[in-house]
Amino acid sequence: MSRKLDSPVQTQMAVAIFKSPIREFHGNNKYEGGQSTGRRRVFVQTERGCVLDMELDRNDNAHTVKRRLQVAFNVPTDESSLSFGDVVLKNDLSAVRHDFPLLLTRNIMHRSSSTPCLSPRGNDLQQKDKSGPIEILGQSDRIFRVKPLVKDIVKAIKIGVDPVPANGGLGGAYYFRNSRGEFVAIVKPTDEEPFAPNNPKGFIGKELGQPGLKRSVRVGETGVREVAAYLLDFDHFANVPPTALVKITHSIFNVNGVNPNNPFKKLVSKIASFQQFIPHNFDASDYGTSSFPVASVHRIGILDIRIFNTDRHGGNLLVKKLDGSGMFNKVELIPIDHGLCLPETLEDPYFEWIHWPQASIPFSLDELKYIEELDPIRDCEMLRAELPMIREACLRVLLLCTIFLKEAVASGLCLAEIGEMMSREFRSEEEEPSELELVCIEARKLITERELPSPRTDMGEEEYQFDIDCDDADLEGCMNGVPFHIGIGNLGSFRNPLSKLDESIEEEEEAEEILEEEAEEILEDGAEELLEEEEEVEKRNVYGGFQPLLRIPSVSKLSISLKDMTLGKKTININKHPGAKLEDRYTTNSSSGHRSANEQLPASVNFVKLGDMTKEEWGLFLEKFQELLHPAFTNRKSITLAQRQRQRLGTSCQF
Ligand SMILES: Nc1ncnc2c1ncn2[C@@H]1O[C@H](COP(=O)(O)OP(=O)(O)OP(=O)(O)O)[C@@H](O)[C@H]1O
């Protein structure tokens, strides 16, 4: 049963501070070392974006915190969940770190539009935020570059220099200015991302924590990725502008349901990414790419590969003329907008640079040294320390891609080749796994075989749900002039792993829906145990749900192999146009101007999951993955060679 909550307008009056037991705070210093004393300040963010400051002490547990939040939101403790990154807080709060946001959600996941949402109640809760207008979350040394910017902006706000909304992009973004009126930072609130509840551009329909524009990046979690990209850009190698997560309070921010032109618009607090504004002349989609320095393209490419960037389109590369005279050879590139990197599962990355000539030029010595010195384990530890809410699945992607980069470079591959091996191909509207994904599929198959020593006897024929049209014989053929052989003879009728994995997502979703419906009914009767089941669903969301029965056909030769074959009958329609800016991929098609998330989200396919493996399986998987890389790279080199030979032959034939 849902309790009556406040009106949508009140709902959106984000409140930062109210009286005890959720207290006021005035800066960070007194909490330094708070973790060791058990006293911590946290920001509780609701699924609709409201932000509340709260102090935890050593005696607090999830229940006591929820009880306090019950006072604020009038939602019973057994109807809400509190999470910190991957961790759904049941009792122990030791995972929670000082100064970081917790997410408060209601347990019933699918609500009708009339269902009220978590909202602070009562006028006494509004507008009592005495903390600074901008507070940097975390105390990392690495964000020292952001501090002076914050100071400048706070000064400017005090004398009435207001921020300006940015027009570009799908999400809400605001340019904050200094006292001279110059742009100093761009701020992107997490609840204004595409499809988030307070998106100002009409892309709404989801709540924080749900799958977002890309299913593998949850709504509200792009900001943490922006910061991760900056932190991973050691020595400012790729030139990512300094970025931090902040809690920021201003009346400019969008709250759907509140008239933006209301002169009495209230202050609202948001959790947002805060990035230094870099003056620039163009973006890469407006400018001749031949003038881009090879080193800049390589450095940005190296970063994109490490972080598995799914959104490196031309608009996300700012171009700054260095000489001011328009001489083409003097430009600097600034990579921005890393909100869609480090997805929770592998999908199709997008690398605008992939066909630029610079990407085919071999790496320089200093680039090779930088890559050689990358230590993905250290990178993961650093991110866990600096951004403790980052999800483990994202860190697995970072680890995997860094290993892939290092091994590829050691095998002599150039940037373009590495990018191509990570990218999927589209053939007649069907999306096929990348070579990287094929290696992962094979590695998973090998570890699954280890777990199930005699698959032929363990698995009945009925478990093979998706047969493909394929003779009971090995496949041989020739692709790009390179002969290939795929050994499938032993398996007979085998199940298409790609279809299976896709199907399993649908099954999982159906199962989830049923669970949620049941949960709704039983919750009405106040049944406690379903909450736990719901948390299990949440966990399965996080880890993807391990499927021990997942069987992959025996593919003896990688890469060339599956990549150039259609393995199943299942057609996956991908509604996207690689290369387009995100905003161009989504168009308004409803008269209200609001785009429903479910209407607009493209179908996406997941060929291989990483987050669902246990620690032990993950270790084994990485071992197999590395073993399989060498043949995959050798194969890629022979394809490149064959292509070059064909090109040469083609050229000579013209004469
Ligand atoms: N650090 C920066 N310095 C200067 N301008 C910036 C910076 N970051 C973003 N911008 C500008 O703000 C615009 C919107 O930012 P951004 O692309 O990051 O938003 P978005 O909503 O995530 O976009 P998209 O829909 O393309 O993913 C950009 O097109 C760019 O012009």
UniProtKB/TrEMBL annotation:
EC numbers: 2.7.1.67
Keyword terms: ATP-binding, Coiled coil, Kinase, Nucleotide-binding, Transferase
Stored Pfam families: PI3_PI4_kinase
Signal sequence annotation: none
MF (Gene Ontology): 1-phosphatidylinositol 4-kinase activity; ATP binding
InterPro entries documented for this protein: P4KG1-8, PI3/4_kinase_cat_dom, Ubiquitin-like_domsf
Matches recorded under SUPFAM superfamilies: Ubiquitin-like (SSF54236)
Coiled-coil regions listed: 498-540
Entry keyword annotation includes ATP-binding: yes
Domain of life from the UniProt record: Eukaryota
Domain PI3K/PI4K catalytic: 160-455
Family membership: Belongs to the PI3/PI4-kinase family. Type II PI4K subfamily.
Descriptive protein name: 1-phosphatidylinositol 4-kinase
Source organism of the structure: Trapa natans
